[in-house]
Amino acid sequence: MMPKMPRGIYILPSLFTAANMLFGMLSVMYAIRMEFASAAWCIILAIAMDAMDGRVARWTHTTSDFGIEFDSLSDLVSFCVAPAVLMYQLVLFEMGRIGAAIAFFYLLCGALRLARFNVKSHDTASMPSTEFQGLPTPAAAALLASFVLSYELFVEGPEITVKTIPMIMQKMPLFFKSIPLTMLVISFLMVSEVPYSSFKKFKFTRPKTLQILLVFIIGIMLIITYPQNTIFIIFLLYVLSGLTGLLLRYFRLRGRFSAPKDAQSLDDKPKDVTK
Predict the structure, then answer these.
(1) What are the C-alpha distances in Å from 149 to residues 127, 213, 230?
(2) pLDDT at 259
(3) Which of 91, 132, 154, 157 makes an SS bond possible with 172, Cβ 3.0 to 4.6 Å?
(4) What is the phi/psi pair of residue 133, to 5°?
């Protein structure tokens, strides 16, 4: 018989989830006040809280249906409402109703993504997977928030005291102009079936995991040196990884189906009977 856990252990994951929602609300408030960098950092902090609540629940064996629902409601605020308000205040308001429609479409796709995730979480017949179906809402929000952080450095110009990557900073105006299209793309990715790695089941005895660990350490060093730019690059690569994996699978399947046809065409060639 397992010992009964203190009630505080069950509350602990919910505290991280509540902190996630708090940072999401603060992000909305900062965005309304046109303090875009503060709003973006609140989204990043909300992502950190979201990453902790699930792990704490698993470590303490306190996962529950209530926790799943509470987590999704917090994610809706922090990773759907907050980024939509932030990008509308920064970019989309200039487009009028079209900009408002893009912001709402992002919010709608994020809500649908979370609803689908909840349904699968309650499905006892489904097996746990190492992949997400569609782009996770925290990753979508992180891409937009990290762009804002780098763009704010670009606007400040020579007054900034933070180290930046010149090649990334030169492309900031282009990234700024592509925000409406980027939001549409990541909105479709959230409700798509494009697989994205969840990084949940890594065994440090596997060679590939050790390579990823090395890349992770290098990434931490880059974040310390070039914080805003590196965070933007990391989440941009993650978003692109799903599309790259989808293309690779397409070409592999195409190669498998074309190989038998090629082999059959070789067999159909007339043989030289003079030999």
Answers:
(1) 38, 26, 11
(2) 56
(3) 154
(4) -95, 105
> Any alpha helices (H) in 157-194, and if so which ranges?
166-170, 172-177, 179-191
What are the tens digits of pLDDT across the range 11-49? Answer: 888 899 999 999 999 999 999 999 999 999 999 999 999
- In a domain, residue 273? The reply is no
Provide the CATH number for the domain around residue 146.
Answer: 1.20.120
Residues in the chain: 275
155 within domain boundaries = yes
- Distance, in Å, from the CA atom of 108 to the CA atom of 102, rounded to the nearest integer, reads 10
Q: What is the model's pLDDT at position 1?
A: 43
- The values of phi and psi at residue 269, to 5°, are -65, 140
Tokens 């479709």, located at residue = 188
For residue 272, is it within any domain? Answer: no
- Structural domains in the chain (count): 1
* Closest alpha carbon to 89 in 76, 80, 100: 100
Instruction: Tell me the two tokens of residue 274.
Output: 């003079």
Per the structure, the complete domain to which residue 166 belongs is given by 8-121+130-267
Does the pLDDT value for residue 208 go beyond 60? no
Q: Is the pLDDT of residue 95 over 90?
A: yes
- The pTM assigned to this predicted structure is 0.82
| Among candidate residues 243, 190, 241, the one with its CA nearest the CA of residue 212 | 241
Integer angstrom CA distances of residue 79 from 17, 28, 241: 13, 11, 20
Flag whether 114 is in a domain.
Answer: yes
Q: How far apart are CA 226 and CA 171, in angstroms?
A: 16
Identify the residue whose tokens are 């660990």.
Answer: 213
